[in-house]
Specification:
Shape: elongated
Radius of gyration: 29 Å
Distance between the termini: 59 Å
Bound molecules: adenosine-5'-diphosphate, magnesium ion
Number of strands: 10
Strand content: 5-15%
Length: 602
């Protein structure tokens, strides 16, 4: 115990010093920028460009969150920007409320609209989201133009007030710089939070995210709402900066401009958002001298954007980062990874899993047809059968990716039949996929941290550091257990197929499941890797973890499994103690390949 306690201290100390010093340096730079904004004698023209850049960039940060982090499209950011702008415009000019109140109200309305829009469409997926956001954008534009008594119609709103403290052009720019710095700080650190990690997991692989315990729908709605909030905030500041707004500033075309800014600079990072925004505001200004030739200005501008995106698909910042990353390798871990501790389930029911009359029909195809079996606690139970016999479908129904046509599933004596995948994971289910599903933009460690972070994971208390550091230690322990701790910082794409399988197993183990579902873990492995896997499975089993494994490798199955259930055409044809099942003539006939007379006798 004392050894681990000593090991924990420096980790905690490092974590405190690192981010704290970073935040302090950032605050100092932001303060300097704000002071420079207030005291540099910019003329009005430059002042306008800077205010525009800062307020637009806040809205583009929203796209960094929703598109860059979470992979969801939003083609209505100008509408949310407009909501914020109109709230400040109507609030200060017509209703004479304070700028701050109007700003908060506008951002709040944008947040609520974003959440509602997200909640109504994010279950449907990509194309619908694009369509619905476009419709929302169009509706809002129509309202701004046609609801004349309230919005003043195409004339727009003038005489928008600023707060007294920031009434001058320079003062207001200072305010925008502070807002930009604050929002930028939040967006920059978001990927390191649980929510941000969940967003990245959803973007990389929704199915894997859900079985790692992430509520995919909620995370998407959160990302969308946050994006809308930043749109509203940016728009509110924009209205204060220009004291006049009109509907054409918040049209669909502007939404496309916001999107282009994000993609051009690099959608994955707020730095990219800022670069893209500045470029798309400054570029047209510098090309002004071409305006004497009609169309030429737009052609050059368009061509420049296309060329940059064509040759830098990850945007300008993404391109720069590939070089910067080589310079900024993270320091190796000072201490060895701790041992993996699997906390046994508190429930004492003899079976970890009870499956009763489970069916899954796809139209007329009965992929799984009335299957029952139970997995004893602490055992390794194999599910075998010919290709297409319904094994993967069974696992998908067990983990909640498919709703069963009929039947009941109980995990640790709790009925989980109606639960969504992430709730089953929270209840103690862990799994891997037949086709590996990892979060491909992340390192091995980040993948496994997401597994460790699942709700209900009881990270052993006591000696280990807490919070994020505990998750990292837990993930390192899991990676160490599968033999890959030394490469934890490497990107997923650098691992062999066999090692990717091990990382997937580590991700499930880090979540401390009470039942581990493995779908053909030996598929695609060479003979050495298969031998290693066999050893790993035995070590997992020796820790008392219950395993349900699908595999075709009979040597592996008969070596590790104590019980076997056999499927054929979706039906259970045998079930029981391994040695007996493997001697069962039905099984031999259907699966193991046997003399016809054996099959006939059955
Ligand atoms: P196994 O894992 O045992 O090889 P599967 O469970 O993947 O088999 O498939 C069982 C049957 O169900 C197959 O005939 C397959 O084509 C069918 N099936 C699986 N998933 C789907 C799906 N999403 N839609 C339609 N049919 C499916
Ligand atoms: Mg399968």
């Amino acid at each position: 115990m004392s050894a681990t306690a000593q090991a924990a201290k420096p980790v905690a100390a490092r974590r405190f010093r690192g981010p704290f010093a970073g935040a302090l340096a950032y605050a100092a730079i932001a303060a300097l920028a704000a002071v420079a904004a207030v005291y540099t004698p910019f003329d009005d023209y430059i002042l306008h460009i800077l205010v525009e850049t800062a307020t637009y960039a806040i809205a583009v940060f929203g796209l960094t969150v929703v598109l860059g982090l979470c992979g969801q499209i939003n083609l209505a950011q100008a509408a949310f920007f407009g909501l914020g702008a109109y709230a400040v415009g109507l609030g200060t000019a017509d209703l004479h409320v304070s700028f701050w109140l109007a700003l908060v109200a506008g951002a709040g309305v944008a947040l609520v609209m974003g959440a509602l829009l997200g909640m109504s469409t994010l279950r449907l997926g990509g194309h619908y989201l694009a369509m619905v956001t476009i419709s929302f954008q169009q509706i809002l534009t129509l309202v701004m133009i046609n609801w004349i008594p309230v919005t003043h119609g195409p004339d727009g709103i003038g005489n928008i007030a600023r707060p007294a403290l920031f009434a001058s052009g320079h003062g207001f720019l200072g305010l925008c710089v502070i807002a930009l710095a604050l929002v930028g700080y939040v967006v920059w650190h978001l990927p390191e939070t649980k929510l941000g990690r969940s967003m990245r997991a959803v973007r990389d692989n929704e199915l894997a995210a859900s079985v790692s315990g992430i509520d995919v729908y909620r995370v998407k709605v959160a990302a969308f709402a946050l994006c809308a909030l930043l749109g509203g905030l940016g728009g509110g500041l924009f209205a204060g900066g220009f004291s006049y707004v009109s509907p054409d500033q918040f049209s669909f075309a502007e939404s496309i401009v916001f999107l282009t800014m994000a993609l051009l600079g690099g959608v994955a990072s707020p730095i990219g958002a800022l670069i893209g925004t500045a470029l798309l505001i400054v570029l047209p200004e510098t090309l002004r001298f071409l305006k004497s030739v009609p169309g030429l200005y737009l052609a050059i501008y368009g061509l420049a954007v296309i060329l940059i995106i064509r040759f830098m698909p990850d945007g300008i910042w993404g391109f720069a980062q590939t070089y910067l990353r080589r310079l900024m390798r993270p320091a190796p871990f000072a201490q060895a990874a701790p041992d993996l501790v699997l906390v046994p389930a508190k429930i004492e029911a003899p079976s970890a899993l009870e499956v009763e009359g489970l069916s899954k029909h796809f139209g007329g195809l009965k992929a799984v047809d009335g299957v029952s079996f139970s997995v004893q606690r602490g055992s390794v139970h194999a599910l075998i059968g010919p290709n297409g016999s319904g094994k993967t479908t069974t696992l998908n129904v067990l983990s909640g990716l498919y709703a069963p046509t009929a039947g009941k599933i109980a995990l640790d004596a709790h009925d989980i039949t109606g639960l969504p995948p992430h709730a089953r994971t929270a209840a103690g289910l862990g799994r891997t996929f037949q086709n590996i599903r990892l979060f491909r933009s992340m390192s091995a460690l980040e993948n496994v941290v997401i597994g460790a972070e699942r709700k209900g994971n009881e990270i052993p208390p006591g000696d280990l550091p807490r919070g994020h550091a505990a998750l990292v230690e837990r993930a390192r322990a899991a990676l160490g257990f599968v033999g890959l701790e030394g490469r934890s910082r490497d990107p997923i794409t650098s691992f062999s197929y066999g090692h990717q399988r091990l990382i997937e197993i580590a991700r499930a183990l880090a979540g401390n499941p009470t039942l581990l579902l493995l779908d053909e873990p030996a598929a695609g492995l060479n003979s050495t890797e298969k031998l290693e896997l066999r050893g790993l499975l035995k070590r997992i089993a020796a820790k008392g973890l219950t395993i349900l494994i699908i595999d075709h490798d009979m040597a592996l199955v008969s070596d590790v499994a104590s019980h076997i259930t056999v499927l054929n055409f979706g039906r259970r044809i045998a079930d029981g103690v391994a040695a007996e099942v493997l001697r069962n003539p039905d099984v031999i006939a259907a699966y193991l390949g046997a003399e016809p007379d054996v099959a006939h006798r059955a």
